[in-house]
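Subject: mismatched residue count in predicted assembly?

I count 495 residues in my input, but I want to confirm that the predicted structure covers every chain. Input:
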Amino acid sequence: MKYTEEHEWLKPEGDVVIVGITQHAADALGELVFVELPEVGTEVEKGEEIVVIESVKAASDITAPLDGEITEVNQDIVDTPTLVNEDPTAAAWFFKMKLKDASEMDGLMDEDAYKALID
Amino acid sequence: MADLLQTPLYDFHVEKGAKLVPFAGYEMPVQYPLGVMNEHKHCRAKAGLFDVSHMGQVLLTPKSGNIEDACLALETLVPMDICALKPGRQRYAFFTNDNGGILDDLMVANRGDHLFLVVNAACKDADIAHMKNKISDTCEITVVDDRALVALQGPDAETVLSALIPAVADYKFMDVAIVDYDGMELWISRSGYTGEDGYEISVPADNASVFVSKLSENELVEPIGLGARDSLRLEGGLCLYGNDIDETTTPVEAALTWAIQKARRTGGDREGGFPGAEEVLAQFENGAPRKRAGLLPEGRAPMRAGTKLFSSENSSDEIGEITSGGFGPSVNGPVSMGYLSTEYSAEGTKVFAELRGKRLPAIVTKMPFVAANFKR
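Triage response: the counts match. Full output below for your records.
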């Protein structure tokens, strides 16, 4: 698993990566009440705001971790936003994407580096 | 947070695991480990305990010894019928400015020989200065800074408080009393800011943690932070000063005309006589250009404060703005309130909110969003 400074995790699965938010991010946001995901097939650029999430406290954006194309989104978290608070690193993944350049994964943080960031 | 004040219940919040944030100059609990959503639901189902010690408590004592003089003096600053307030009763009020805008909203209680006021934390210094400036000839103005203020709200509030103080079960909505409990002098009113039945209790600062521990020992009680306090009052259709009402909103625009009794309106015994009376009474006659109203978003996306409102999906004419909005845990969906041009403020009107560049529909809806549960 790799991590971004925006508190996203990326997990390779075949020729795509699964993307979600970390437990640390989910805890900081508080209970989620609304999630809006991008359309499948959307070409996204690193840093582009592609997901809107709202918690009981505030609205936030989630950005594309790397360049690529959205291949699948998780309707379960749209239907039940609090799933993100319950299981952010497995059942409550956000979207899957095919990276433009798979080697860019190497530039992201590993678990130790991410832990150091949030400590 | 070096410059922030702490309430007498600071240690209680820390002990309960609260997340503390700066609010109106105080370090206040925004939530406890239960979380905003569950705190909200707990308060509607059982009983929630709130620390509101940051609010201002003020006594107005008539120098003449005659309470009517204090009532008449306060009436020069608020458009309420304070003279008609009976001993042991409380009522909602607001200070107006010369344009008819609202300087602050407050509670006023008649306690026999003096008035007791509770004002907003962020406005208390200005309110006290305002009263000292305007009515100190007739009233002794005493700031009560050695007392905490807590609220116990929810359908089980009566069960919880009457287990300690049986008499409170007989109080009606907006009754006030001074009660001795275990050597503490408590100032109790049956009122609150959640839309639920409940009490607000002023307790000497030195006794506050003991008293609050007594309440929270009851398993029906959970401490509730500012996060849920906001969603509870929003579902209750209650205004937050600074968001939904301020110096630029008049009582007529704010749909608070119910709080201005007949005696102070045109043709009343003591018509006008408060700051901005001409403007306010003219709006009673002629209506106001805009009106505060409830809004139910049709989708799931919360529409928060600052969101602009339009008459259609593509119209460029702004017809209003949301002043409070978020997710309503009891409604189980988004709820908002805001100001709309009066022609769009009728119940059932469909308007459009601009969210992240998209126009999303919302329906003008009667408030409260959750039926009030007061003991009248």
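Residues 109 and 115 of chain A are 9 Å apart (CA to CA). Marking this ticket as 'not a bug'.
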